[in-house]
Design brief:
alpha+beta, binds magnesium ion, seven-stranded mixed beta sheet, four-stranded mixed beta sheet, Phosphoribosyl-aminoimidazole Synthetase, Chain A, domain 2, PurM-like_C_sf, ATP-binding
């Protein structure tokens, strides 16, 4: 429904591979001081001197991770970059470069790749990272997009999933659940559109949720926010698969337990009202919905005063001894074991 039906179509086969790469990457300039050589040779050359280099890669497959029926190509390009940068941020590092690899079938014209690349380049500009390489090739069916993100950090700043202590506090940035509900709204509109293509959806009441789904942001700012508060997180992860699954990752890798408080989980008011409309429990959505790309981390109890009134962060629980297990403390003070439930489990709630 969001695709432009009047766009021009230039067949990819009219350009060779090198011409295509040249066309998509012309005038890309490297701005990061750590980039010695970007695009234009057999390999990029980076120099991080005495800093640590953090690398993360992610692959997105059409029909598995995205649906072009409601994901405009420009947004897809932007999101593909952001989800990778989020992993760099989750190491408490600063993203600096990306490489971009794309495989497409011949159903995509050149204009579609230009659109995709405009989103990738926009994200690179917003997040101040250099595009230093990549590849384009053909696929038998659909689109596959793989991005590798590179970042830098002082050795002491790097934060792993291992490192949470049984007395630490559990903290997160932003709010959770909105991206999942944005997807529910878009899926519903897609079904309406399939029945009646002339229907013009009015999505204003869902703007925040849809934006969280189609144009998520990586929390590149958190590293600096914590530094300004003089807080060094003890463990950190980004919330890509849902809050409960990320909490379980930290607990398992740090050998600790956790009490998460239902009434402390930050929810946007729009999420709460749309959950009511869809007859879904907002806590279940917050725990199991994914793709929020907020950061979840633990801090020592001594840092409580520094963070407690900060509007960027919510203290949502505390860690415990591993033997105590991982629990959700509900609003009526019931203690229930936290499970990493799948994406589909939300619908059964
Ligand atoms: Mg991650």
């Amino acid at each position: 429904m969001l695709e432009d039906k009047n766009q021009e179509r230039t067949s990819l086969s009219s350009l060779g591979e090198f011409q295509l790469i040249e066309h998509l990457t012309k005038d890309i300039e490297a701005k990061q001081p750590t980039t010695l050589k970007g695009i234009g040779d057999d390999g990029a050359v980076l120099n991080f001197k005495d800093k640590r280099t953090v690398v993360s890669t992610d692959m997105l497959v059409e029909g598995v991770h995205f649906d072009l029926a409601y994901m405009p190509l420009k947004h897809l390009g932007y999101k593909a970059v952001v989800v990778n940068l989020s992993d760099i941020c989750a190491m408490n590092a600063k993203p600096t470069q990306i490489t971009v690899s794309i495989a497409v079938s011949n159903r995509f014209p050149l204009e579609a790749l230009e659109e995709l690349y405009s989103g990738i380049r926009y994200a690179a500009r917003i997040y101040d990272v250099d595009i230093v390489g990549g590849d384009t090739t053909s696929s038998q069916k659909g689109m596959i997009l793989s991005i590798t993100a590179i970042g830098e950090s002082e050795e002491d700043d790097i934060t792993y999933r291992v490192g949470a202590n049984p007395t630490d506090l559990l903290v997160m940035s932003g709010d959770v659940g909105a991206a999942y509900m944005g997807l529910q709204v878009l899926e519903r509109e897609k079904q309406v559109f399939e029945v009646n293509p002339n229907n013009q959806p009015d999505l204003e009441a869902y703007d925040y949720l849809i934006e969280r789904q189609l144009k998520p942001e990586a929390r590149k700012d958190v590293k600096d926010l914590l530094k300004a508060l003089e807080i060094k997180p003890t463990a950190m992860i980004d919330i890509s698969d849902g809050l409960s699954s990320e909490i379980l990752h930290i607990c398992k890798q740090s050998n600790v337990g956790c009490n998460l408080y239902e009434n402390k989980i930050p929810l946007d008011p729009q999420l709460i009202s749309v959950c009511e409309e869809f007859n879904l429990d907002s806590t279940t959505v917050a725990l199991n919905g994914g793709e929020d790309y907020e950061l979840l981390f633990t801090i020592t109890m001594e840092d409580f005063e520094k963070i407690k009134a900060n509007p960027n962060f919510s203290i949502i629980g505390h860690m415990t001894q591993e033997s105590e297990g991982v629990h959700l403390i509900t609003r009526d003070d019931t203690k229930i074991p936290l499970k990493a439930r799948g994406w589909d489990a939300v619908d059964e709630a």
